[in-house]
Amino acid sequence: MKICMLTSGHDVFDNRIYYKEILSLKKRYDQIYLVAPGDKDFVTEHGIIVKCFPKRKKWYDRMRPMKDIFNIAKEINADVYHAHEPDSFQVATKLKKELNAKIIYDSHEYYPEAFAEHFGFISSLVKNIIYLYEKRLAKQADCIITVNNILVDKFKKYHDNVQLIPNYPVIKYRNFENKLNKKPTFIYVGGLREDRGIFKILQAINIIKDRDFKYIFLGSFETEKFELKCRKFINNKLNNMDITFTGKIPHKRVFDYLNISHVGFVILQPDNWRYVNSEPVKLFEYMSSKIAVIGSNFPMVENIISSCENGILVKPDSPQDISRAILKLAENLEMVKVMGNNGFNKVKEIYNWNICEKRLLDAYEKLGEKLK
């Protein structure tokens, strides 16, 4: 079976697409292609053939990439096309008609809500339009893959083959001990944005700036404006604090920083509906690294942290609440170690990619039977 992944906006080495799904499929299938934005075609160290097209210049630059994806993907002539956004899946529906291929829609984000955020006061109208657009397309899928029960319930209203494959971390079963810093170390991993609580964390640090803790932020700022806001605040109020911004780093190096940290931040903000109703990937990545968590008191996050006893819930828009959590954990590192182990054990038991891999391979096996 020849498989072709399609993405219009994700990186070639996107964690879910490449390191989870593609590498899982590679265990069973030899011919795997990835069509993604990039500078040039190449073959990865795992033998995945990557075909690239120029990245879109703006969020609304969508037609030209779709044409590029179609032309490249048609030439590949795959048996299964696996698309990761509504626009790349629209390409897949055309490939299905022309090549009689099987197609998968992998909805791992709230796409209608995310797209509508660009439209201000008419965002509700745009969201409803995109819902209808997505529904019309998704009905043509041979299989729909998604990441949580809210999305499963949405797609099951009009499709009978919906698979729940959460974004749980890949666990390497080995015994290891974190090489923790001597002083309490707090880490954030991901894009640096206002709605992910970065500025709230800085405000919380300012409240307790008399304490000697280390803070690490892994990732790049989404906008220059927000970076200037954070840099100005740090220069004016936190100039002598031990705060490190690494910028974007290779996926494999993230673990080096997690390994020295005690606590991870998941401070998504409440004004974003998508965040309130999500299971953040970073939460599970922290858990898989044996570190405790300070998390937003949203229902899905609360359900995980409360049941696992691996961290503290806070009001994400309250710097005072965040600062209290930082102090509580920093002053009891033995408790932090217990929390880290609690989270790690739950990941080994429940929240791991091995479970998801089996579901993914089963879904492909069923599609393969239909191709015979």
From TrEMBL:
Transmembrane segments: none annotated. Residues 173-344 form the Glycosyl transferase family domain. Keywords: Transferase. Pfam families: Glyco_transf_4, Glycos_transf_1. It comes from the Bacteria. InterPro entries: Glyco_trans_1 (IPR001296), Glyco_trans_4-like_N (IPR028098). Residues 25-167 form the Glycosyltransferase subfamily 4-like N-terminal domain. This is Glycosyltransferase involved in cell wall biosynthesis. The lineage of its organism: Bacteria, Bacillati, Bacillota, Clostridia, Eubacteriales.
